[in-house]
Structures are given as C-alpha cells and as structure tokens.
Amino acid sequence: MVRRSYRPEQIIQKVREAEVLVSEGSTIGEAARKIGVTEQTYYRWRREYGGMRIEQVKRLRRTLRRRIAVSRG
Fold this sequence. Notes:
The chain is mostly helical.
C-alpha cells in the first residue's frame, strides 16, 4: 500500500465515512479498506480525530503554529 499524507480535514471526513459504513453493517476491516487505509490507521485516526469537527482542527492547527512562532522568538 502506498504511503500517503492526509490533511486533518480529510482524515475527519474518512473517519466519518468509515463510521457510516460500520453502522450499515460492514466490519471495521471492510470499512477501513473501502476508505483506503489499514485497520490500524483507522483506529489511530479515530482516537486522535474521532470527536472533532473540521473547525476544531483548524483552530488547533492555528494554536500550534502560534506556539511555534512564540517559541522561536
């Protein structure tokens, strides 16, 4: 499987898509394959981004950028 970087917005969208597939009766493994990631990646994404909305991720990213800028002086 090719390694690919996803933006947080894309990750949230894929996690939601997988949750819909699971609620429709697919297994976690099947749902992960349909969204193009491994089962382990799905679980990691769900742990990190599961309850977030896209606006929250954007705010978090802005905060982290500000902290980096302040620490650099």
